[in-house]
Amino acid sequence: MSLVPDQLHYRESHEWVDSATGAxxxxxxxxxxxxxxxxxxxxxxxxxxKAGDHIAVVESVKAASDxxxxxxxxxxxxxxxxxxxxxxxxxxxxDKGWICKIKVADxxxxxxxxxxxxxxxxxx
Amino acid sequence: xxxFAGWEMPVQYSGIVDEHRGVRExxxxxxxxxxxxxxxxxxxxxxxxNRALTNNxxxxxxxxxxxxxxxxxxxxVIDDLIxxxxxxxxxxxxxxxxxxxxxxxxxxxxxxxxxxxxxNISSATxxxxxxxxxxxxxxxxxxxPDAVFPEHNxxxxxxxxxxxxxxxxxxxxGEEGFEFFAPATTIExxxxxxxxxxxxxxxxxxxxxxxxxxxxxxxxPLNGNDLxxxxxxxQAGLGFFVDLTKxxxxxxxxxxxxxxxxxxxxxxxxxxxAPSPPPRAHYPVVHDGQVVGETxxxxxxxxxxxxxxxxYLPASIAKSGIPIExxxxxxxxxxxxxxxPFYRKPQASS
Lengths: 124, 350
Known about the structure:
The complex is a heterodimer of chains A (124) and B (350). Chain A is α+β, with helices and mostly antiparallel strands and 124 residues long. A 6-stranded antiparallel beta sheet of chain A has the order 1-2-3-9-8-5. A 3-stranded antiparallel beta sheet of chain A has the order 4-6-7. Chain A has helices at residues 28-34, 81-84, 88-91, 116-123; strands at 9-10, 15-17, 23-26, 37-41, 48-49, 54-60, 64-68, 73-78, 100-104. The radius of gyration of chain A is 13 Å and the shape is globular. Chain B has 7 helices and 19 strands. In chain B, a hairpin with a 5-residue loop joins strand 5 and strand 6 (77-87). The longest helix of chain B has 14 residues, at 187-200. The interface between A and B is medium-sized, with 11 and 15 residues.
């Protein structure tokens, strides 16, 4: 069973956002499907993105996967720890494996995303 | 599961890196039921195969196999395959899954003539590959302690109540092992038995993902990635499997000419020399500021923990130690050409 924390919001393409902190990452389900993450191309701090924009690349042994922003806003921080240890995305996708933090432009936008219950159904 | 040439194939079970290491260190079993099998027999079979394929089947003793190539009239590769000699006048061919129909059409197009019987038994035949240093242990557990293990490039076959079993001393990983072909209806049962044998030996099932990383580390070409209808086996570095002393075979005149006048490009190994994203197929390859090619098979080597790959480079720089760059999403990363295989098994310490 994949972990799906209740307090987060989810995109169909398996990214999560924490509306309280603006942290963005990929879900436990996504990391399990990718397995063995070996490289993360982080978003550029200062970039202004729209929901659905391509912001990062996560590469496993198997494939390169594009990561899309769940929300619109400015990238204010990127998780440099992933450059040194990309496997944090596998071992701790919701905490140490966060990808970036976004200063969310419109908090109402998260309403368009899935809540935990919907995402659980989405991956069932 | 991913669709692959009409089959639903597992890319991974426990994870590509885990399965890869399992095969290098212990043992793994791959389902290779998608692969194709042809039987060619008759008084004209030997001459036909010598005309259709690059290697010399006349060199095969009964029960022996060889890697060989099927070429088009331009000397380009249609498919790479293994041909085994089952008896005086009977041959067993194992071809790539995606090429079964095309290979058959090509062979039929050459005209079998008198004394050649052809049968495509691909859909009725399944296959499993057991690979890794503990392959013999698994073999003994599944087939009994007295069963004869097929030596490298040898084939053993036996008629059972369920049909013919073919046991081949071949593989695609660089490890000791065997490939095993049997009636498709029996493969699931064999798979369960062999998986249990592998688990008892500390291994388990392995998917297409690990099969790809294992063969890439050995520098083994994959048809469609590294072999192509516009590249000859001499360009692919497979001259060892081409017998130019044979009177004739399809594509020979082009190969004779390349042998005499040189090849334009050659498949060359490379490794990344600085931290970079993993190289993958179809990335531009740069030398002296100029794009000189495009990556063929490429990826992260789990054994070396380094990006490796292959590229057709102009003959002048198709040798080891040449600095190149791989362009990944618009950025160029340092690499250098290297000899294949990329991975060599550590010698057992004495």
